[in-house]
Amino acid sequence: MSTSAMRVPDPGWTDPECPVARTLDLVGDRWSLLVIRDAMDGARSFTEFQRRTGIARNILADRLRRLIAQGLLAQHTAPSGRRQEYVLTDAGRDLFPVILTLRQWGERHAFAPGETHSVLVDRHGIPVPEVTPTGADGTPLDTGTTLVRKTR
């Protein structure tokens, strides 16, 4: 059963019919996305998440609980059996293109020319190419070539 099939409608959705708004309701604060980012980069323990993000313990505990409740992280006993670890679920891994697109936007707009920043590379050490959404025919898509159609 998919996560969406299990999700009960929330009367508190910011904009109940908009997928962007619902996604932001679930993961739209910076700490949640940074925890997801770090989980994608191999963080598993509470201590690792705290060290990488600098987040306060109480806020981190809250975000981890929420991400588990929302089906984006799962909590398991570590192989040592002495602590808990957090791993991405399928839904959490599905956020990879979102994190990638945010990263690439940040590379273009959040740094001065020549300013040092981290780079995402593939398993061969080659920088990940720029992501460009395309239509079914391969044509690049942007705000001028798409529109939102309400469904009912």
TrEMBL record:
- Which PANTHER family would you find in this protein's record? TRANSCRIPTIONAL REGULATOR, MARR FAMILY, TRANSCRIPTIONAL REGULATORY PROTEIN
Q: Could you state a single Gene Ontology molecular function term? A: DNA binding
Organism, as annotated: Microbispora rosea
Q: Organism's domain of life?
A: Bacteria
Print the keywords alphabetically: DNA-binding, Transcription, Transcription regulation
Region spans: Disordered: 129-152
InterPro entries registered for this protein in UniProt: HTH_HxlR (IPR002577), WH-like_DNA-bd_sf (IPR036388), WH_DNA-bd_sf (IPR036390)
Polar residues bias spans: 142-152
The HTH hxlR-type domain, residue ranges = 18-114
What's the name of the protein?
A: Transcriptional regulator, HxlR family
Fetch the SUPFAM superfamilies from UniProt: Winged helix' DNA-binding domain
| One Pfam family hit | HxlR
